[in-house]
Structures are given as C-alpha cells and as structure tokens.
Amino acid sequence: MQLRINEERKELKSHGSAEFPVNVSLEMLSRYERGAFLWHWHPEVELTYVMQGEIDYQVNDVLYHLKAGEGLLGNANTLHTGHMHENQDCLYLSVTFHPRVLGGFENSLIQKKYVDPLIGDPGFSSLHFDGSSIWHGQVLLDLQEIYRCHSRRDRAYALEIILLIGRIWLAVTQNAKISGDSTDLASEKNLDRLRAILSYIHFHYADRITLEDIAAAANICKSECCRFFKKYMKESLFEYLLHYRIEQSLPLLSGQEESITEIAGRSGFSNPCYFAKVFKREMGCSPTEYRSSFL
Q1: CATH 3.20.20.370 correct for 248-294
Q2: What secondary structure letter does DSSP report for 70?
Q3: What mean pLDDT comes out for the span 101-124?
C-alpha cells in the first residue's frame, strides 16, 4: 500500500472528523511498498511513538533515527517521510490532530498565545523525544496512554485523549528551546520550492522529464535546482526520480494484465532493459521474479 496524496503532496487521508479531529493508529512500515511512506504533508500536527523496531524519519531537512521507546513531534504543514532502518520493520503509533483541538474557538487566548506561535514558527518543524531531557519521559508516557485510551474506548476516551494531547503541548510550550529563527528550508519560500519539485516529479514521472522542466516548475535555474534538492533531500534529483519510478511500478507488477515492457513505459522507462537493470539494483530481484511472488 501507499499513502493517498494529491498533486501537491498533501495527504488525502482523513485525520479524524470535524467533530473529533484526532486520528490514532498503529502503523507498520512493512505495510508500505519498499518499507517506506512517501513524502507528504498535512495541516495536522503529528505525534509518533516507536513501539518496536527503528525508523529513519525525515521532517523537512532534518533526518531522525528513532528507536523503540522514542517519539517525535512533526509540526503542521511540514514535509515528512519515513523508511525502514537497515531493512528492519517498525511498529509505531501515529497521533495526528488539528491545531483547533488545542485552541478551541477561533481567536481564543489559547490559540493566539500558545498554539499559533508554535504552529506558525517556520523554525519549529519537529522535536525529537529521545529522553535527553527529563521532561521527555512524561511526554512518552502520555503517548503510550493515548494508545491505551484509544484501545479501551471507555465512555470518556475522547476527552482523555484531548487532555493528554494538551498536556504534551503544554510540556512542549514550557520546555522546548524554540528560537523562532527560520532555517533556510523552513522559510515558506523554500518549502514551496521543494513542494513544487516533488509535485512535478510525482505528476510527470511517466513522461520524459528533463532537468530544465523540473527547474522551471520551481522557478529556479538548473544548477540551483540540483544543489537545492541534493542538500535537503539527501540524494540527487536523478536518484530520487529513479526511486520513485520503481516505486510506481510495484503495484502494476503485482497484477498479470500488462507486460513488463508496458509497465516499464508506464513507469517512465522508455527502455525495458534499463528498467530491469534499475529494478534489480533497487529491489534485489528482476521485475519478472518480483511478479512471480504474487502468483
């Protein structure tokens, strides 16, 4: 499976409901093709707690290696992705919530003083709860309690979850060292630039893409496009494009309707031999061998 996202990389999954804009779920990386979920963003804050295994989790330009018992806060509207660490599976708790859970009604004192300043701070993209500070311990316990409340579904479970989220936010507000200074990537301009590049690749991956096309989508020159992408995505544009094309070929190979040559073309490879070569390098087997695993 893979996340449902639109052309701008916004996740289409419902994170709770209008009445209760909170979503609590257990996730496993092995449920995703290649043990990774794609780059995406959403207007909700996301709390992650690793229950088993490890995960390499990137938020904007910051890469975290999360281990069992550790947690992470990803701010609203940040770009993020996660993948297996050394090919080992990871079971983790995901808690997403809309900021209005904290602020209540529009323009409330809580919203203006304690929510908007953090949500809108371009320098505050994420926070790692790794136990390096004493207050992390309570946050991690509260994340575990959110899971227990959600599992039990007692009569007041929704209220309990809201109170626990509020306590976590209070701890972050009181203890996190947030300078308010914007990093290069955290500026809205650079976030928009990165979204534009990713959106273009993800929408046109099956076409013949040139560097000039991608750079034009982000309104920058070709050399700056390569430098910018490599700096913040930790891989080259060409490498990312190949990874993404192989990713898109996997669901097609799980069926038997199309030939390998047709699937190669639909995935952006004009040469089926080159497709097979890249596939073998990425997946450790040929497209035919991968397809046979579904028979």
Answers
A1: no
A2: -
A3: 86
Tell me the pLDDT tens digit for each residue of 126-149.
999 999 999 999 999 999 999 999
22-175 CATH: 2.60.120.280
Q: What is the mean pLDDT of the chain?
A: 89
Instruction: Please give the C-alpha separations between residue 25 and each of 17, 48, 53, 141, in angstroms, as whole numbers.
Output: 14, 10, 17, 17
pTM over 0.85: no
Per-residue pLDDT tens digits for 140-181: 999 999 999 999 999 999 999 999 999 999 999 999 876 555
Contact assessment for residue 264 and residue 249, using Cβ atoms and an 8 Å cutoff? yes
Q: Which residues of 273-287 are buried (b: 16+ CB within 10 A; e: fewer)?
A: eebbebbeebbeeeb
Beta bridge partners of 176: none
Q: Taking every pair of C-alpha atoms in the chain, what is the biggest distance, in angstroms?
A: 62
Phi and psi, residue 222, nearest 5°: -65, -45
User: Rounded distance, CA 89 to CA 269, Å?
Assistant: 30
Residue 281 amino acid letter: R
Q: Where are the domains of the chain?
A: 22-175, 184-234, 248-294
Q: Where does 42-104 have alpha helices with state H?
A: 100-103
